[in-house]
Amino acid sequence: MPRPPRLSPDAVAAALRELPGWSGDADGLRRSVELPSFADAVAAVVRIGFAAEAVDHHPDVDLRWRTLHLTLVSHSAGGVSELDLDLARRIDALLP
């Protein structure tokens, strides 16, 4: 199945205006979120994992105690694609 192409910097900047928890540019999207406890952070990773599997697109996840650092990039596109924007929205629906 072909993957979506890399988005332009302008398209990514426009999308980020509708994703207030996220930052980044055409090279990647980033979000950090602090959860109430380590167990809550681990549970969030599991929820994100199931969402990622559902769309066959996977974030880089760094868990530091109760803080999640997430990075989205479509490596096959060489930067941010529509897959990353879709997954960012799905992740936002799962996190506080």
Automatic annotation (TrEMBL):
Q: Does the keyword DNA damage apply?
A: no
Q: Which reaction does it catalyse?
A: (4aS,6R)-4a-hydroxy-L-erythro-5,6,7,8-tetrahydrobiopterin = (6R)-L-erythro-6,7-dihydrobiopterin + H2O
**HAMAP family linked to this entry:** Pterin_4_alpha
Q: Name one GO biological process term.
A: tetrahydrobiopterin biosynthetic process
Query: Enzyme group, top EC level?
Result: lyase
What are the record keywords, sorted?
Lyase
Q: What is its EC number?
A: 4.2.1.96
Q: Which family does it belong to?
A: Belongs to the pterin-4-alpha-carbinolamine dehydratase family.
- Spell out the Pfam families in the cross-references: Pterin_4a (PF01329)
InterPro entries documented for this protein: PCD_sf, Pterin_deHydtase
**Which named protein is this?**
Putative pterin-4-alpha-carbinolamine dehydratase
Q: Which GO terms describe its molecular function?
A: 4-alpha-hydroxytetrahydrobiopterin dehydratase activity
Entry keyword Lyase: yes
